[in-house]
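In the laboratory, one determines a bound structure by crystallizing the protein with its ligand and collecting diffraction data. In a computational setting the workflow is compressed into a single prediction: the sequence and the ligand go in, and a structural description comes out. We illustrate the idea with beta-D-glucopyranose.
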Amino acid sequence: MLRKLLIGTALATSFAFSAHAADVKEVQMLHWWTSGGEAAALNVLKGDLAKEGYAWKDVPVAGGGGDAAMTALKAMVAAGNYPTASQMLGYTVLDYAAAGVMGDLTETAKKEGWDKSVPAALQKFSVYDGKWVAAPVNVHSVNWLWINKAVMDKIGGTEPKTFDDFVALLDKAKAAGVIPLALGGQNWQEATMFDSVVLSTGGPEFYKKAFNDLDDASLKSDTMKKSFDNLAKLVTYVDPNFSGRDWNLATAMVIKGDALVQVMGDWAKGEFHAAKKTPGTDFLCYRFPGTDGSVIYNSDMFGMFNVPDDRKAAQVALATATLSKSFQSAFNVVKGSVPARTDVPDTDFDACGKKGIADLKKANEGGTLFGSLAQGYGAPPAVANAYKDVVSKFVHGQIKTSDEAVTELVKAIDDAK
Ligand code: BGC
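The predicted complex, in structure-token form:
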């Protein structure tokens, strides 16, 4: 559908701008980085581009996981109004590339040696048909717990190593009158948490089969049912006002000590960083219990469109700045993510960042690095959306039992495939 919608406009745009005007010294960027931590990270990029004489034209569309941003992008592209670049997740990049509207950064990539420094797991989504169509910005990982240290001390908690340990810890918080689990009741947040629950419940092989290979038997299995049971258990620790809450407000509950823990991707750490909180002293980062050794990842990519010639220099400047080693360190320290290149020292990263970098390396080498289904790296957008919808209906009681949830999940994924 995307393809049909876009092909006509791709041709229209390339004819409309064939004149060779002077290069436009402006980067127009569509993104969903609107929280405090995200805005701070984006400022690093704006600053680097300003030094090169590029003005910043911001197109922010709030909403983690980028669903709203992707709706806005579709409208812009359909109107032939391509941004210089757009923040995008995995399979969305490939969809637009297949629709023929992406640019070609291969020359820059060759000059900068990206094929040697960017991990294969990211090249799978930034290179299409032999051409670089996107610049990877970072690697995020979703299977984390973010814990308020003072609350943890108060309740005498220790790192939960298993799902049962986690439940016992949440019980302690509850008994102490603290909200145990900070969650934002939006489908992408619920599904992002469920990614971790499935990895913890079924183990690495199961996660891969179910959420990357979309293996029918795994999706239908008792292990998937047990995963929904575990999710239901977690939801009993959430406060009654969680519906619709933004993810960064849930993080703020942990930062302030109103809640013990949030299960969220490491963009949450960007909020702790922006609030000047230190790992080990103010907060703790642990892998989601039972998932140590595996990493469920996503990566923000700057997808580059086939813009008119006078805007291509801005794209090259943006892509070059994005993948420079100094930016990869400076930006990711603030963003909470880890570098999209394997040759960036971890010196400037805090303890959680250092752990993130080490975990990624180990998972990559050990075959336990998996794309997040909730975050656009497990399967194409239609499947991911079907998944988010079922998980959310279950969390909000529209789907009542785990058996029903499994049936609905299998059906929704089948229909979306
Ligand atoms: C993106 C992160 C972003 C988060 C919350 C994720 O989809 O990958 O960069 O911080 O959404 O907005």
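Residues 144-183+238-293 form a domain with the D-Maltodextrin-Binding Protein; domain 2 fold (CATH 3.40.190.10). Keep in mind that any predicted model is a hypothesis to be tested, not a measurement.
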